[in-house]
Design a protein that fits this description.
Layout: H1 3-8, H2 23-35, H3 42-56, H4 60-88, H5 90-108, H6 114-143, H7 148-177, H8 179-201, H9 210-222, H10 228-232, H11 235-256, H12 258-264, H13 269-294, H14 299-316, H15 323-352, H16 357-386, H17 390-409
Helix pairs in contact: 2-6, 2-7, 2-8, 3-7, 3-11, 4-5, 4-6, 4-16, 5-6, 5-8, 6-16, 7-8, 7-13, 7-15, 11-15, 11-16, 11-17, 13-15, 14-15, 14-17
């Protein structure tokens, strides 16, 4: 009996027993897992930032610094979990992380002290934004070769729909019942929903079907897999990694203080919640379009387009005056984000192979996590010192434009 057969013996569902390619089951659960990272992501914390600050009477700068430390420490989880996935497989790692994250979120819903909050935010960052994200992305890359672009497109579409549903639901729950109830609900969903799904239905490696063996043979004959050291010595690792990280820095800073940013422009909290829906919808469209473009364009060309759109949204943000302006800004930001998500999820396995994908994906994720920690502190410090967010968006736009130029010219391994 093969190792795959031994793993599946006695399980609830065998890949050979379903009338479709079992890899799509992994794609669905991977997307659900990424949605499950919400309490550990800046966008998720952004939903509860204002009521949390009010209930615990925490200064905005103090909270930003707590978030910075938590995210930097949490970034270390990216490096360890990638190695665990490469060694032990996605199933057990995903199950353990999901259950642990659920318990931490439940504990955070009852927190009252600043020290406890700092510890629990650190754990949600490490387990959610870092570890669970790495496992989720790697699950798809470990299964697919020829159909990788399609699989990643489906994956990003599913998780975009998931976030599009989750953001307004959690936002409404925060408004109606408070942030503690919202966090308790999320923790319970992770424990009794996603954890059993992971244990019962996730599979570590594809079954030895004829199509999959053909794909793997083709991949082995035409390409080679890079080690982590070899990958980080290529310019494309840093251009794509830093571009994704800068997007994360911008998105996290805006997400955590978006309500405050829009309040500076004269808008209320409901405008902020509506803007999240617009961003999610247009990101979904960006996933469709980006997935289609990756099969026709080189990856660096799509990254250039994403950076140009991101720069445009940053330059426009200080000038929003009406609801239509906010919708237009959110549309462009969401489209750019949709492209970046497709690129980040597809690039590493496409450029460097999948033998060492967990470690490479973990290193890349660590860059984005560190940047997402810096974003809120940067915006908070800037606002405290200047009384406005506007100028920092101009400076960030210049950085993004420089990355667009670099992306256009950088060579990509296995595409050159």
């Amino acid at each position: 009996m093969t190792s795959a057969g031994a793993e599946l013996r006695g399980s609830a569902l065998r890949p050979s027993a379903v009338p479709f390619y079992y890899g799509w089951v992994n794609v669905v659960i991977a997307a659900l897992a990424m949605v499950g990272t919400l309490p550990g992501r800046t966008q998720g914390l952004g939903l509860i930032t204002e009521p949390l600050l009010a209930s615990l009477q925490i200064d905005r700068i103090v909270f930003a610094r707590i978030n910075l430390g938590a995210t930097l420490i949490g970034a270390l989880f990216c490096l360890g979990v990638g190695r665990l996935v490469d060694r032990f497989g996605s199933r057990i790692v995903l199950t353990v992380i999901t259950a642990t994250l659920g318990g931490v979120v439940l504990a955070m819903s009852g927190v009252w002290s600043v020290i406890s909050l700092a510890v629990l935010i650190t754990l949600t960052r490490g387990l959610g934004q870092s570890a669970l994200s790495v496992v989720s992305i790697t699950m798809v890359g470990k299964w697919f070769v020829k159909r990788l672009n399609l699989a990643m497109a489906v994956y990003t579409i599913l998780l975009s729909i998931g976030f599009m549903i989750a953001f307004p639901l959690i936002g409404a729950l925060v408004i109606s019942s408070g942030w503690r109830t919202a966090w308790w609900t999320i923790g319970l969903a992770l424990l009794v929903g996603l954890t059993p799904l992971s244990l019962l239905f996730v599979r570590n490696t594809p079954s030895n079907t004829k199509d999959e063996l053909s794909e793997r043979q083709s991949d082995a004959e035409t390409n080679r897999s890079f080690t982590l050291t070899e990958a980080i010595l290529t310019p494309s690792f840093w251009v794509f990694g830093i571009a994704s990280a800068v997007y994360g820095l911008i998105a996290s800073g805006i997400a955590l203080f978006n309500e405050s940013i829009l309040a500076e422009r004269g808008f209320d909290a409901s405008t902020y919640h509506r803007s999240l829906v617009i961003v999610a919808l247009t990101a979904l469209f960006g996933n469709f379009l980006g997935g289609w473009l990756t099969s026709r364009w080189r990856m660096n060309r799509l990254l250039t387009l994403a950076m140009l759109l991101l720069a445009g949204s940053l330059l426009a943000l200080p000038f929003v005056r009406t609801q239509l302006d906010v919708a237009a800004y959110a549309f462009i930001m969401g489209l750019a984000g949709g492209f970046v998500i497709v690129i980040f999820f597809s690039f590493w396995s496409r450029a460097y192979g999948r033998v060492h994908l967990g470690k490479i994906q973990g290193a890349a994720q660590a860059l984005t996590v560190i940047a997402s920690a810096v974003g809120p502190v940067l915006l908070a410090e800037w606002f405290t010192r200047t009384g406005s967010y506007a100028a920092i968006f101009y400076l960030l736009a210049l950085v993004v434009l420089l990355l667009a130029v670099m992306a256009w010219f950088v060579p990509v391994p296995r595409e050159a």
